[in-house]
Design brief:
By secondary structure, the chain is mainly α. 58% of the residues lie in helices and 12% in strands. This is HTH arsR-type domain-containing protein.
Length: 119
């Protein structure tokens, strides 16, 4: 019987102590980073803006996606809040541009996190 007890004591089993690898704050931050790209309209808008060398009028952004103006405005607001795009008013129109440094920073942060999954 002693041999069985020793064997059980030597195995870690399914209840071994593990670490999540991220604290709650870090997990929330990376989750927020991923959520920026969690909707196809935001991905389309961001792609249009990153492919443009000039500022893009909101009317052109609205025409480029298959959703109505309020939905475009909502997704542009989320991209602005994430710091990925900025906007400038010119008369009645708003012109958008991608914030390339912020986008590069976000990309680097996501890549660093994804690299930890490959270990």
């Amino acid at each position: 019987m002693t041999g069985i007890i020793e064997l059980i004591a030597q195995t870690t089993g399914c209840c071994a102590s593990t670490s999540a690898g991220l604290n709650e704050t870090e997990a929330e931050a990376i989750s927020a980073d991923f959520q920026v790209f969690a909707h196809p309209v935001r991905v389309q808008l961001l792609t249009l803006l990153t492919n443009s060398t000039d500022d893009v009028c909101v009317c052109d952004l609205e025409a480029a996606v298959a959703v109505k103006q309020p939905t475009v405005s909502y997704h542009l607001k989320l991209l602005r809040e994430a710091g990925l795009v900025s906007c400038e008013r010119r008369g009645p129109w708003a012109y958008y541009r991608v914030e390339r440094e912020r986008l590069a920073s976000l990309k680097a942060r996501i890549n660093r996190h994804l690299d930890t999954w490959n270990r």
